[in-house]
């Protein structure tokens, strides 16, 4: 028996519902494989602002740093849109404080749901992409200035920041189909020229067994829609990764289907579904929990190094989808918790 501590950050909107669903499946994994998972819930986002005045209370961060893995539901909502402190500040702060510099976002299409994709079936059949986004650098964390008539946001990258996220991309490609595409804007931006030079050198010195190609972000955005099967692993900087990973999320037909992992060089990772807090359906048992459950599988795989357990969750999810055991956004008849229950039962 192995023992692991998992911090749950339910957050706002549908976050508590999908976090509950993920926990149900993780508990089923613990029972099936003989593990002891100790769960602890803490506040983040809007609810944390309401109750403590801060989007990331010190006690939450402390608990996360001391855990083996962190699961996040969702943060944000219109209630805090004009507030002096925003829920999203808690998410950015926890990534920075925990050193979570790489975000892994799979973009896949289930054969059983291929007709729900907004793209033609022949374009998305067999799509299996992993986007690796740099998460703690670039324009999102650069110096900001503002006057009455001008504003600026500084984009800065170091060789070290580029190397560490590129390594994750190369290693991921080695374990998949052996192809890495680095996306930049090297024909215009100096940071992108440094990015490309660094990736080329790293490939030459350490990863020559991986096929490397490069793309400009504007043409890549087009190619991602017109020929997505050409991609295996994509690695890119913070803002480009934010945009491209959201673009790729439409392949599956529902943003509720996909999970993500945010990792650092050491310490616990953060795992969360890619959807937002969906306040319009919060508390109605309508939210699709599959993205959260797939995030739980990534927690098992990358956070706790439990490959067989992660595989089992992914097989159970795939079987539930084939059986039509899902929520209304996919044309199903089940609620959030019933969907999670079906998946847990398959374990």
Describe this structure as you would to a colleague.
This protein has 347 residues and is α/β, with parallel strands linked by helices. The protein has two domains: 1-98 and 268-347, Isopropylmalate Dehydrogenase (3-Layer(aba) Sandwich); 101-257, 3-Layer(aba) Sandwich (Isopropylmalate Dehydrogenase), CATH 3.40.718.10. Helices cover 42% and strands 19% of the residues. A hairpin with a 6-residue loop joins strand 11 (259-263) and strand 12 (270-273). The radius of gyration is 20 Å and the shape is globular.
Task: Give a concise summary.
The protein is an alpha/beta fold.
User: Beta-strand level of the residues, as a percent range?
Assistant: 15-25%
Which outline best applies?
globular
CATH topology of the largest domain: Isopropylmalate Dehydrogenase
State the CATH architecture of the largest domain. Answer: 3-Layer(aba) Sandwich
Return the structural class: alpha/beta
- Count helical runs: 12
Low-confidence stretches: none
């Amino acid at each position: 028996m192995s023992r692991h501590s998992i911090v749950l950050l339910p957050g706002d909107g549908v976050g508590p519902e999908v976090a509950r669903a993920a926990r149900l499946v993780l508990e089923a994994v613990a029972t099936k494989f003989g593990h002891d998972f100790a769960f602890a819930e803490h506040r983040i986002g809007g609810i944390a602002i309401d109750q403590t005045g801060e989007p990331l209370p010190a006690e939450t961060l402390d608990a996360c740093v001391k855990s083996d893995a962190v699961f996040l539901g969702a943060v944000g909502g219109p209630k805090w849109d004009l507030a002096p402190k925003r829920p999203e500040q808690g998410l950015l702060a926890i990534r920075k404080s925990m050193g979570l510099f790489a975000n892994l976002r799979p973009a896949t299409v289930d054969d059983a749901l291929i007709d729900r994709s907004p793209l033609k079936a022949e374009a998305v059949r067999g799509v299996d992409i992993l986007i690796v986004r740099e998460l703690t650098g670039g324009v999102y964390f650069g110096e900001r200035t503002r006057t009455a008539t001008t504003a600026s946001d500084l984009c800065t990258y170091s060789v070290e920041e580029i190397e560490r996220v590129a390594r994750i991309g190369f290693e991921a490609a080695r374990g998949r189909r052996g192809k890495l595409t680095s996306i930049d804007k090297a024909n215009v931006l100096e940071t992108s020229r440094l990015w490309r030079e660094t990736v080329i050198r790293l490939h030459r010195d350490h990863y020559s067994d991986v096929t490397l190609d490069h793309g400009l972000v504007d043409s890549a955005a087009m190619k991602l829609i017109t020929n997505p099967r050409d991609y295996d692993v994509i690695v890119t900087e913070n803002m480009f990764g934010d945009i491209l990973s959201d673009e790729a999320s439409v392949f599956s037909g529902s943003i509720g289907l996909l999970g993500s992992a945010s990792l650092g060089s050491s310490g616990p990772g953060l795992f969360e579904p890619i959807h937002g807090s969906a306040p319009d359906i919060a508390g109605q048992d309508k939210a699709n929990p599959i993205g959260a459950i797939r995030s739980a599988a990534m927690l098992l795989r990358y956070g706790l190094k439990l490959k067989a357990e992660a595989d089992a969750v992914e097989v159970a999810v795939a079987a539930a989808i084939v059986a039509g055991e899902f929520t209304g956004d996919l044309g199903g008849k089940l609620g959030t918790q019933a969907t999670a229950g079906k998946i847990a039962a398959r374990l």
